[in-house]
Design a protein that fits this description.
Layout: E1 4-15, E2 18-30, H1 46-53, E3 61-66, E4 69-70, H2 76-86, E5 87-90, H3 102-113, H4 119-125, H5 141-153, E6 159-162
Parallel strand pairs: 5-6
Antiparallel strand pairs: 1-2, 1-3, 3-4
Bound molecules: adenosine-5'-triphosphate and magnesium ion (MG).
């Protein structure tokens, strides 16, 4: 059994007059332990795909099986649990909480799971040991992105979804 299986996934955005077919009959499988890279021009549905796979957005039709369970059939409560326990997400626009420091943003992700983790160690790994008490507004784009990476990785999630995770990072 594939770890992830998408079957004819469609996502249509209806914003007013304009209908956007962001995903059209998308099908693929990912095995456990596999790393997959999705490439495509801007506006072709990469973020949409990651959002529906991460249970952040809903599909218009089709199925998404994760470990054999169709997450498109999940209730809001089941989705919250799935997002919290199984998914780590590095968002294209970081999505850090503005009123929490770098340390607290990372801490939040494991606190929600009631999991233990070495927050300082992971922030050190992404080169932010000198920025732990900074708020997102006090960080550069690349630094914010590195907090977002630390926040996703510390959970050691079953499924790690990274949306252009190094876009703002130039070393
Ligand atoms: N909330 C929304 N409402 C209406 N249309 C949307 C919405 N979100 C995305 N779209 C449209 O759906 C299409 C796919 O968007 P998406 O963000 O998935 O693209 P992308 O491949 O991630 O692009 P990029 O490389 O620029 O990040 C685009 O044409 C976009 O304009
Ligand atoms: Mg995108």
């Amino acid at each position: 059994m594939a770890f992830i299986k998408l079957e004819n996934v469609k996502k249509i955005y209806n914003s007013g007059e304009i209908k956007v077919n962001a995903l059209q009959d998308t099908c693929f499988e990912v095995e456990e332990g596999e790393m997959v890279i999705i490439l495509g021009p801007s506006g072709t549905g990469k973020s949409t795909l990651l959002n529906v796979l991460g249970g952040i957005d809903t599909v218009t039709s089709g199925s998404i099986f994760v470990e054999g369970k169709d997450i498109t059939k999940y209730s809001e409560k089941q989705l919250i649990k799935y997002r919290r326990n199984d998914v780590g997400f590095v968002f294209q626009d970081y999505n850090l909480l503005e009123n929490l420091t770098a340390y607290e943003n990372v801490q939040m992700s494991i606190d929600l799971k009631k999991q233990k983790g070495d927050i300082l160690e992971i922030l050190k790994k992404v080169g932010l040991e000198k920025r732990i008490n900074h708020y997102p507004a006090q960080l550069s784009g690349g630094e914010k992105q590195r907090v977002a990476i630390a926040r996703a990785f510390i959970k050691n999630p079953k499924l790690l979804l990274c949306d252009e995770p190094t876009r703002s990072i130039r070393l």
